[in-house]
Predict the 3D structure of the following.
Amino acid sequence: MQILDQHFEIFIPASSIQQRIKDLGVQINKDYRGKNPIFLSILNGAFIFAADLIREIHIPSEISFIKLKSYKRMESGGKIRELLGLEHDIFNRNIVIVEDIVDTGKTLNHILEEFKELGARSIEILTLLHKKEANRYPIDLRYVGFEIPDKFVVGYGLDYEGQGRNLKDIYKVISVA
Ligand code: 5GP
């Protein structure tokens, strides 16, 4: 499969993604019973994951979307912009941050610092994908869908140069030697 100048191969099929989301839902329903959590999903990448996840949540909860950065081509760690769209009062609330992928951890590190100042009761992180080898910032990830190698991925909300978010499966780049 080709997007612009890059070739990709299938990596995590849609059926595996959906199964894993069901499992995560079971766990969150259990952990957050009686806690009325707010799921804060980070746009753009996490929008499809958040939409599927929230339909596996059967306890009282809220969801909201925040936005903060752009991702330059295939490198992480570009310039981080300000946090946009946080309309909820998160004081004394149980927050679950819903991310598509944690790479270096820079994005989350930035968000967590801002949230601590806003007085949330608890903040946990739920990410669909985690690139363990690339984690440069020490962050406690409470829920991880899949641990993946340090390869660029697209699909299921994740883009390459704006393309590929609509793909149902997750693909990884085929590196040319
Ligand atoms: P971090 O700040 O943890 O280095 O990077 C996290 C952000 O970088 C993610 O929210 C995502 O936007 C982007 N990112 C990191 N790795 C990938 C990848 O393999 N594919 C895509 N499409 N985006 C990535």
About this structure: The chain has three helices and ten strands. Residues 45, 71, 76-77, 99-107, 152-154, 158-160 surround guanosine-5'-monophosphate (CB under 6 Å). The beta strands are 2-3, 6-12, 38-43, 62-69, 80-84, 94-102, 122-131, 143-148, 153-154, 170-173.
